[in-house]
Prior knowledge:
The structure holds two protein chains of two kinds. Chain A is of the alpha/beta class. Chain A has helices at residues 10-22, 35-43, 61-71, 88-97, 110-116; strands at 2-6, 28-32, 49-53, 78-83, 102-105. Chain B has helices spanning 13-23, 35-44, 62-69, 88-97, 109-171, 177-206, 216-227, 252-266, 303-306, 321-333; strands spanning 4-9, 27-32, 50-54, 56-57, 60-61, 77-82, 99-104, 211-213, 236-243, 249-251, 277-286, 289-296, 337-343, 347-355.
Amino acid sequence: MQVVLIDDNEIDIFVNQKLLETSGLGAEISTFSNPVSALKDLQGRDVDVIIVDNQMPELSGYDFLKKMLEAKNDLKSKMIVLTATVRQDLQDKYKALNPSIHLCEKPLDVGYLSALL
Amino acid sequence: MNKQYILYVDDEEPNLVAFRAIFRREFNVLTATSAEEGRQKLADNPEIKVIISDYLMKGITGIQFFESILEQHPYPIRIILTGFADQTAMLDSINKARVYRFLSKPWNEYDLRQTILSAIELYDARRRIAHHQEELEHSFEELNKFVHKASNEMRSTLVSMHGIVRLAKLNDQNKDNMEYWPILEKGIMQIDLQLRNIIEHYKADQHIRALSKIDFETMIEKCKTALSPFQDFSNIDVNIQVKNDEAFYNDAFRLQLIVTNILNYVSEQINPEKGRIQLDIEVIDTKNGVQIMFTDDGIGIENEQLNGLFELIMSKGSSQDISLYLVKQAVENMSGTIEVNSLPGEGTYFNIFVPNNAPKIHAGSTN
């Protein structure tokens, strides 16, 4: 299973990568601290799961997924957005973009993730 | 000191001449023989602090003149000169045209001077207050923004730390450490809850109150769910009784803030001898609103702590104080009241009144 982690916060990348590694999901993980380079990388390949931070300076999680969905209209990857607080208005915003997007509070809950996958 | 600007409007030229002769040394006297000219003088001289107008002029009364300039020139203080004995008829106009004083005509120089001087004083005082208020509102807004931003940034770091602790809990092979991580995690979650509270509170202050219909049972359950990641409810027996028949409208956001914070407070009050706590939440209709009562059988509150309970004082390392501070702020914001009674060893009782802001749709009809 190929997983892409995108977060501008290095600690969160470290933690989430470790959590995924120890989860027993057998994930092959690539990480990006810059969403723009992640966007470039994902043009050329398909992955199973995209986990993206909601709040990033270069490109918000919302804008990132919007660009992804525009670039690939047959995107099959599971999309998970990480945020400090899941708010109703945020939930609505992402659901309007694409109903299959999941919001998940930080830190990543591996139990929740494996249930999702 | 600079001479202050005053404007005198009267359609009888000799009055203006006399007025100027007396007051020109003390004030910058501007005069106009018609309402039209008066408006022009006001537009040209924003420094004018006091306007004196004759009551009966050709085609217009002084009151009408004042009303016509109310919107464009709200600040100058207004004085009416009138020859009429029947001033009671004009009292109605005081509010409409915001007249400061009525002086009888022909005017008495001493009275008029004193009135002008106190009008200038009033003008200055009002402007000062308005200025301070603006400054205050501005700095409050800045403070709000700062607290909101700082809290969000602290939370984001805290959440990262929480992630590391969670990771350590999974991976640490050392038995001793396994006792430390949960304690550290609990501490982190406590701080996180406080930060969430602060963020919500400062958000609550910024946004205008949004009224909605409240279903208390659903709302209280929602608060329990929201709090469940932070507080273990397995030792708390919550008993909810809602006797609210009247459609109740108020700020759902603030009500949730109140209930969540009281639940949080109560869950820390467990009497170690009992190991459990019973919390009865009762909602009843009262005149103009509802009463929400929280009764627990926890450790209770010592008498001397009761007084400062809702104050923002961090005493004896208690992290709960901010919960109740936020409760009080929210209650007061909704124009409600809160009371607390407690017996150490027996329990605590909170009694909150919140007014009903149900829209009055058919206020005039009995059907």
